[in-house]
Automatic annotation (TrEMBL):
Its main location: mitochondrion. It comes from Aquatica leii. It comes from the Eukaryota. This is 2-oxoisovalerate dehydrogenase subunit alpha. Keywords: Metal-binding, Mitochondrion, Oxidoreductase, Potassium, Thiamine pyrophosphate, Transit peptide. GO terms for molecular function: branched-chain 2-oxo acid dehydrogenase activity; metal ion binding.
Length: 422
């Protein structure tokens, strides 16, 4: 093959400029950038271990309810502080009543939030109404703060005719379009890549997405994919990890190695915070800072909140099989987030025992009223099984619906028809 003069000239310049080694100029330094990674060359071969970067845990309020460093006090109004405490204690009473109702066979399933109240309320208080929330399944307090009513909550747990999900979901799988809270999915970590995508769509709109998950979900591949998507695409999302010590029965020490979940953030190029998840002020400050950064920079933030799951994983779990009663009692006595905030309020003369008794009586009455009303409501009509998937029901689905109608009419004496909406 004979090359033209122009082609030969181009090839000659290419090889001279790219393939032939050159003598390094005097301006060459040991610092370079490769694939957008800053490099420092070294002639010493050493392992970089898990202890090379240990991320500290941020705390504002100590166990005695005292501000450790005055400059870190969020300076919240008295009304906000009272709302925080009332929401936390309201959540406690809800958990007690619904957990017991499941044991009585009145609802099919439940998951309590004991020990993690500060992660819910502290983070939710730092958000705006138009921010979008992706939950896992233990974020009931976030919904309460945003305005989810007791009736809405009870209707969902009963799956009755007023349930926004029309009885299709398990209890505690809440969702609210009105509150920008995306419906919960049972499979772990599915919400993480969805949150990254939603945040990508919200870029430049002065709002963010927050995505809650546990340290167990962080072991799923979807979590790693979401971190990488969000970092490389510049998504304004807060990945909020509730590290409560257990992924059902698997303790954190068996779930991962290295510096926890927070240690993964820098590896993905994500700014990261670790906070005391039992300190509602630390959670609030961290979420507020993360939100401001995500909006300003159009970049993700990872928050790891260190907390403890006091209750069983769910009503299908018996945690006494894998942890001691003494362990739970220790955490309840020393790191209770509700007690910590109450001590703070009492120190500022914003709360007392009389107020506590009055609020407990009022809240319990309101909860039981909503509970009784939800229990008496009928179930959604069976035809709802076929709705809300397609804009127009296709022929093969319509045929199934007609067959079911015929079946129910033929065997109506065998079904509790009166329990369902007409």
């Amino acid at each position: 093959m004979v090359l033209s003069k122009n082609c030969a000239s181009l090839l000659g310049r290419y090889f001279r400029n790219t393939l032939i080694p050159k003598t390094l100029s005097a301006s060459y330094t040991s610092s370079q950038v490769h694939a957008d990674v800053k490099l420092e060359w070294t002639q010493n071969l050493n392992f970089t271990g898990s202890s090379s970067l240990l991320i500290p845990s941020y705390r504002v309020l100590n166990q005695q309810g005292q501000i450790i460093k005055e400059s870190e006090d969020p300076k919240l109004s008295d009304s906000v502080l009272e709302k925080m405490y009332k929401n936390m204690t309201l959540l406690n009473v809800i958990d007690k009543i619904l957990y017991e109702s499941q044991r009585q066979g009145r609802i099919s399933f439940y998951m309590t939030n004991f020990g993690e109240e500060a992660t819910h309320i502290g983070s939710a208080a730092a958000l705006n109404e138009d921010d979008v929330v992706f939950g896992q399944y233990r974020e009931t307090g976030v919904l309460l703060w945003r305005g989810f009513t007791l009736s809405e909550l009870m209707d969902q747990c009963y799956g009755n005719c007023d349930d926004q999900g029309k009885g299709r979901q398990m209890p505690v799988h809440y969702g609210s379009k009105r509150l920008n809270f995306v419906t919960i999915s049972s499979p772990l970590a599915t919400q993480l890549p969805q949150a990254a995508g939603a945040a990508y769509a919200l870029k430049g709109k002065n709002k963010i997405v927050i995505c809650y998950f546990g340290e167990g979900a962080a072991s799923e591949g979807d979590a790693h994919a979401a971190f990488n998507f969000a970092a490389t695409l510049g998504c304004p999302v807060i990945f909020f990890c509730r590290n409560n010590g257990y992924a059902i029965s698997t303790p954190s020490k068996e779930q991962y190695k290295g510096d926890g979940i927070a240690g993964r953030g820098p590896g993905y190029g994500i700014n990261t915070l670790r906070v005391d998840g039992n300190d509602i002020f630390a959670v609030y400050n961290a979420t507020k800072m993360a939100k401001e950064y995500a909006i300003t920079e159009n970049k993700p933030v990872l928050i790891e909140a260190l907390t403890y799951r006091v209750g069983h994983h769910s009503t299908s779990d018996d945690s006494t099989k894998y942890r001691s009663v003494e362990e739970v009692q220790h955490w309840t006595a020393t790191e209770n987030p509700v007690n910590r905030l109450r001590l703070y309020l009492e120190n500022k003369d914003l709360w007392n025992e009389d107020m506590e008794k009055q609020w407990h009586t009022e809240s319990r009455k309101d909860i039981l009223t909503a509970f009784d009303a939800a229990e008496k409501k009928s179930k959604p009509h069976w035809s709802e099984l076929f709705n809300d998937v397609y804009q127009e029901i296709p022929d093969h689905i319509r045929k199934q619906m007609e067959e079911m109608q015929q079946h129910i009419e033929q065997y109506k004496d065998q079904y509790p028809i009166k329990a369902y909406s007409p």
